[in-house]
Amino acid sequence: MKGTDIRVIPGLFSIAIIFLFWFVISPPQGVSANAWHLLALFIGTVVAIIGKAMPIGAIAILAITLVALTGVTNDSPSGAIKDALSGFSNSLIWLIGIAIIISRGLAKTGLGNRIGYYFISLFGRKTIGIGYALALSELVIAPVTPSNTARGGGIIHPIMKSIATSFGSSPEEGTSRKIGHYLALVSYHINPITSAMFITATAPNPLIVKLIADATGSNISITWGTWALAALLPGLLCIALVPLIVYAVYPPEIKSTPDASTFAKSKLIEMGLMSYGEKVMISVFALLLILWAGVPAMIFGADYAVNTTAVAFLGLSVLLISRVLSWEDVLKEKAAWDTVVWFSALVMMATFLNKLGLVAWFSTVVESNIHQLGFDWIVSAIILVVVYFYAHYFFASTTAHITAMFAAFYVAGLALGAPPLYLGLLLAGASSLMMSLTHYATGTSPIVFGSGYVSMENWWVMGFIMSIVNLTVWGVVGGLWWKVLGYW
């Protein structure tokens, strides 16, 4: 609808789905009416998100309202509204929201750009070296940048474009293949990998932690350190492979770039000495990593363990006290508050779908169909992960995809005999790595694709190639690494 944020056709389709499940399709045997009605609201919400019927935060408010008014989780009106708002009490949601606010300091102080230009000054004498410099820049800022879009599209992509332009490579002049085509593909394909390496590297990761904990009765509660250590080896190997594979498939015309190092050094000189704000940001960055990794508890014992979300609040408090960020900066960080709202709604709905038995029912259906094929748990897990991964061709949101499919596929894998932590880590990795597939797979992709350096055909070909490489590395190398760590 012109002049508003509402898209009528996707909105009507979403409403039609809800009415269809609520009034026309009867609940299958073993599923309660309340569980089925909540599923109707859930599917309608996911369809609205995929179709972008409204901004995701607005859709979340509608979902919360419908859960509260319909009483699908609780017959008591006061109990229903408490259930509908229960997602806001989840500490993982606030971890991501606060971390997004903290990451604002990277852009405000210029530290993100300084890191990028510093690595290019070191490795930028060859085109492939620039690729690795961009990759290292992504990796360094990923732990404190929970928005992969802000990281890849807001920090790394402008640096990549400035480097390409300095070599006369631009879509407008038909010179993309000089260097811009290569750098755009490398910088983009690093983004899903860094997103898979840390709980705090992309917004949906804490949701995965919650879904795994719910499915295992909290027997498996993945910490920040556990996730980071598990993803370290497969993540670094994938990062090492990306510039080489892109170079082999789509080699740049310009292969030697001595001017890139000079260009980056000139940018660093232009930025001057490290500012007060940058120094504080680095200190906070180091503090967060040390506490998130559980270093005090390792050295002094369990009494010194600190909650991950409390650490994020500590980091933000330091930035406020030091005046690196102002309260106005906090209020203006719309992405953070938007994330807290939509994340709370999706976590709430996913939680009650599990409590009402719907996830268990659906996972049994998936499990029984795969079980009939007669494979062992290894082949069965591969089938599950591959289906889950490539279903992302039909999604424009990793959050919607994870919310719709993760829990059921994880529980089905457990029923097929897969080791819980192995399967959880593999599906968690796949949940970010699937961003590589299309030019609409996540928020970063339309930004990089929209710059015009890469054709849709080249994008999809490279995405499919990297999907095979990344999944293989995560499943095989990651699996062996997790075995060494004693995770399964």
Automatic annotation (TrEMBL):
TM region(s), chain numbering: 7-25, 56-72, 84-103, 227-250, 280-302, 308-327, 339-362, 374-395, 407-430, 459-482
Membrane topology listed for this record: Multi-pass membrane protein
Keywords: Membrane, Transmembrane, Transmembrane helix
InterPro entries assigned: CitT-rel, SLC13A/DASS
One Gene Ontology MF term: transmembrane transporter activity
PANTHER family: DICARBOXYLATE TRANSPORTER 2.1, CHLOROPLASTIC (PTHR42826)
Protein name: Divalent anion:Na+ symporter, DASS family
